[in-house]
């Protein structure tokens, strides 16, 4: 359905509910889902209009909302629904999320007592969702399944396999990995799962209004274990809570939970770390899809923090699973420098120079800034066509001499230098902090490597800046 048609339907819904036309309406930023949000203003009030063609998701959200409201849980009020036309109107909870509030209050990740108290309040609310929320809930409306079962766990793990391991060309034995993923799922299924699992309980889905917390985006909830939601909140990558704060909040959650049900604290913690592991793998896959494939920069910037969580789990031996192939593949992730680098907008200028094969695609700028130069070296003479150079790269002297013997290669590099100079001089004058220059050829092994090295030398000599060189051929040829 076209955007104007959606707006017309929502406008009619608003008039049916309010009995008058809105004084204004404003489209809100699109989330990771296909839902479209609009803020309608009337008199001095506002209301949120939502349209989504996902019928099952709409059914789940509206039912959950009505059910949670009846239990006194802090969710938006559902004012109007027309599920035949895929829309509903809900209470406007404002724009302040727990995440945005933390970023203003603790941008350096130093968590104050005030922030900690908000987390404690969120955990108290979480326990109510998990224990009270399940009573009388129609789990048949849960999507994609009514329970977080083995199929659900394997979907998350397969998501990780395809949008992390395969996306970054991390080698693994397919059958051994499948065996490990099944074993991990079987272990997680031994945990009691007769609770409401929110599924995406994280700071961006927690709103702050009138000094209280309200909760949104629970339509993916289903029956499941307690640990999953706790892992989702405390190990959220972009917030990057200090580990001692995470442990303190885990103790707080267990103590609060113990007031309602019997809890074996040691066993709870042991399984918590396994669910943290699962959640981190799922989040890495989401970042791979949203950031690397769909090119949404905020997800690219989140990658290093999620990988840090992975490293923390492994370094402390908290993943007690006999899954050697999975462990080996995960350890390889820690070696991918380009997704581990954190980006500071106030840092001095860094110049990244890549060589790559067009068969594998243009290198991604993980800073989230995008842009930079991409130069196509396929117009240059190709030493890869000759058997004597086939197993060499642009770092080898015979290949270097071959390319230096062709005037068109030198002409190409001179033109590249002039183009790069324009940006570099501007970047240095305006204190910009990142420039990416990429050279591509057919195999990513000869011409692109040679050109990347030459331009790196040029920049180092002229600007006294040491560029960071990343040659893609190492990955392409399996080294």
General description of the model:
The chain folds into 3 domains: 3-91, Phosphorylase Kinase, domain 1 (2-Layer Sandwich); 98-339, Alpha-Beta Complex (Aminoglycoside 3'-phosphotransferase, Chain: A, domain 2), CATH 3.90.1200.10; 350-476, no CATH class. Residues 474-479 have low confidence and may be disordered. Helix 5 packs antiparallel against helix 6 and helix 7 crosses helix 9 (265-293). Strand 4 (78-82) and strand 5 (87-91) form a beta hairpin. The two termini are 48 Å apart. The protein has helices spanning 3-18, 55-70, 98-105, 113-131, 150-165, 174-188, 227-234, 243-258, 265-293, 297-315, 324-333, 397-404, 407-429, 447-463, 473-476; strands spanning 24-27, 36-42, 45-51, 78-82, 87-91, 195-197, 206-209, 212-215, 222-224, 350-357, 373-376, 434-441, 468-471. The strands form 4 sheets. The protein has a 5-stranded antiparallel β-sheet with strand order 1-2-3-5-4, with helices on both faces. A 4-stranded parallel β-sheet has the order 11-12-10-13. By secondary structure, the protein is an alpha/beta fold. The longest helix is centred in the middle third of the chain and has 29 residues, at 265-293. 47% of the residues lie in helices and 14% in strands. The radius of gyration is 26 Å and the shape is globular.
